[in-house]
Amino acid sequence: MKLKSNQAVLSGIICLLIAIILAGYFYFFANKNVAEKSVDQSSSCPIETETRTVRGKSMTGLVEENANIKILKGYYNCHKVQRGDLIALSYAGNDNPLLKTIKGIPGDKLDLKNDKEKWQIEIDGQIVVNSEQKTYELGEKEKEMLALYIKDYQGKIPPNAYLVLGNLVEGSIDSTRFGLIDKKEILGKAER
Question: Of 41, 89, 151, 152, which sees the most CB atoms within 10 A?
Fold first, then answer.
């Protein structure tokens, strides 16, 4: 008789634990769905915000290393990419996004000018500068990458393509190394 009593108590405890787990599970997902619906109802353009810490020095002078930034994922699903926007972009072979500035947009006239053994980038007849108004100075390798796009697209940035640069005038991992980027590579707008 005692054995049946212990089994009944054990069965009751197991049933109670299952009931608590199920109640917690349904409570969590019910609240999650309500939160998602409120986001969808409050905005026709849902944006996910992610905070990241800047690693690297390519944006020094504009955004310092170890600064926190917010990435607004999905922002460009409903907003136009603008010249001067600070963006996070996906870079092949790297788990961390790159932080860059949009310097050239579709339709811009892209050219290169030689100035005393260094090359300068020109957009719509204006020499491109960083946030400190210093001119980017490209070496021969970086010039060759952009020259390919200028030749292939007759000097115009094609639809859905963007010229992105770091803030260091001597260069960084940006369009001078990997060329123009496609809009689908942009993860979101970045805010300091």
Answer: 89
**In this structure, what DSSP letter does residue 167 have?**
S
Strand partners, 52: 69
Domain boundaries, the chain: 1-42, 48-191
Q: What residues of the chain score a pLDDT lower than 50?
A: 1-3, 15, 19, 22-42
User: Tell me, what amino acid is at 123?
Assistant: I
Burial class for 53, CB neighbours closer than 10 Å (0-12, 13-18, 19+): exposed
Token pair belonging to 144: 């060759």
Q: 58-79: b or e for each residue (b if 16 or more CB lie within 10 Å)?
A: bbbebbeeeeebebbbbbbeee
> What's the CATH number for 48-191?
2.10.109.10
**What Cα–Cα distance (Å) separates residue 185 from each residue in 105, 178, 181, 188?**
14, 12, 7, 9
Q: Which of 65, 71, 75 is nearest to 52 (CA)?
A: 71
Contact 106, 160 (CB under 8 A): yes
Q: Between β-strands 118-123 and 126-127, what pairing exists: parallel, antiparallel or unpaired?
A: antiparallel
